[in-house]
Design brief:
The chain has 381 residues and is an alpha+beta fold. Helix content is 54%, strand content 15%.
Length: 381
């Protein structure tokens, strides 16, 4: 015990001997009340000094001090109670137990303060990036890295804090050592139970560093299209196109193939297929297609291509390509091309619509045996 504490203890004991007419519990309560009040006053003074020190500092330090206000108060009061228990006339056994409990709480409070510093650093780092802009690739990259690493760091900080706190209690010291060694509380069984968690933690670090996915990425997983809505330390939430949520473990994006439509940039080429008759005027359809694309607000001004990609026994397959600035816009552009080009063929280029052909034997007014009957003629209106 420090000499200063011994001197204070002797003075307090000499003082409380003057109040030997009071019950011992009342003296103990009075001593603790004095030290708790002293801790409260000390917190006011220390916090005022810290606030003045960081007044001209950057926002990070000011934020750290403001976030630590309650935690610093708890810390100082714990110290005050510990000193009060030490110098009070309490029996040595209960006094030692209370000091052990206070040391346990003291270490947990330090971990709580460290977590607040980590949160403030994350907030300050992300303030430099705006994810609300359309070209938010860099912002999403840093947001994903920061959120994943923040959650992983919090898990590690929690394990270390609880492990150190448990090591201060004699009966739980081995638990703390086991926890710090990542072996768990009950050895192999706990290690096997923690294996999925540790696997996802490692996967989270890999995702944060290599970034196969980022927040708001457009992805196709399990044959479903959606956007990455949330990345935690153990799982990823994908918001599907119909507002359903698909929850996948982090390890999924390391061990299984998936499609990421916004890996390097958000631009995408939309594809629309048409089936037209052999006699369809492809040049005329191409001119109409280019006019539709150029007039669309969804087109980004880059790719526009129409090509005949296949010939079947009945029709020609025509593929239309057009680029857009993002996956949702590309989807809208594809739908617009289908609607307007189909309307063009229906209203202005009916010869492009698919038709069935039947060959009649020469000189006969009936189809050849086995021939398919012709469809009913189309009557406009």
């Amino acid at each position: 015990m420090p000499p200063e504490i011994i001197v204070v203890t002797r003075q307090i004991r000499a003082l409380w001997h003057r109040f030997d007419w009071l019950p011992e519990w009342a003296v103990i309560g009075l001593v603790l009340l004095v030290f708790v009040g002293g801790g409260w006053l000390t917190h006011k003074i220390v916090f005022a000094i810290l606030r003045r020190v960081v007044r001209n500092k950057d926002l990070f330090w000011r934020g750290v001090v403001e976030r630590a206000r309650v935690k610093l108060r708890v810390l100082i009061i714990i110290i005050g109670i510990g000193i009060g228990v030490t110098v009070s006339p309490m029996d040595p056994g209960p006094s030692e137990d209370i000091r052990s409990a206070l040391l346990f709480l003291f270490i947990l409070t330090l971990g709580w303060m460290a977590s607040g510093v980590l949160d403030m650093w994350s907030v300050m780092h992300l303030k430099r990036y705006n994810i609300a802009v359309e070209d938010n690739l860099l912002a999403r990259k840093h947001l994903t890295q920061t959120r994943i690493l923040q959650r992983v760091a919090k898990v590690v900080l929690f394990i270390v804090t609880v492990g150190l706190a448990l090591m201060t209690i004699a009966g739980f010291r081995q638990w703390g050592v086991s926890l710090l060694a990542s072996a768990g509380v009950v050895g192999i069984i706990a290690g096997l139970a923690l294996q999925p968690i540790l696997t996802n933690m490692v996967a989270g670090i890999q995702i944060a560093l290599t970034q196969p996915i980022r927040l708001d990425d457009a992805v196709i997983v399990e044959n479903e299209w959606g956007n990455v809505e949330e990345i935690t330390s153990t799982y990823v939430v994908v918001k599907l196109w119909d507002w359903r949520r698909m929850v996948l473990p982090l390890s999924y994006f390391i061990t299984k193939p998936f499609q990421n439509w916004t890996r390097e940039n958000a631009r995408l080429i939309g594809v629309a297929f048409f089936y037209v008759d052999y006699e369809a005027p492809i040049d005329r359809l191409r001119t109409a297609f280019e006019g539709i694309v150029k007039a669309s607000k969804h087109w980004d001004g880059d790719v526009q291509v129409m090509q005949v990609t296949d010939i079947t026994e009945r029709v020609l397959q025509v593929r239309c390509l057009a680029s857009a600035r993002s996956a949702p816009v590309a989807f809208d552009l594809r739908c617009e091309i289908r609607e307007k080009l189909m309307a063009f063929m229906r209203d202005e280029c009916r010869e492009a619509l698919p038709r069935d052909r039947i060959e009649w034997p020469q000189g006969s007014d009936k189809p050849a045996e086995g021939a398919v009957s012709p469809p009913a003629p189309f009557v406009p209106g």
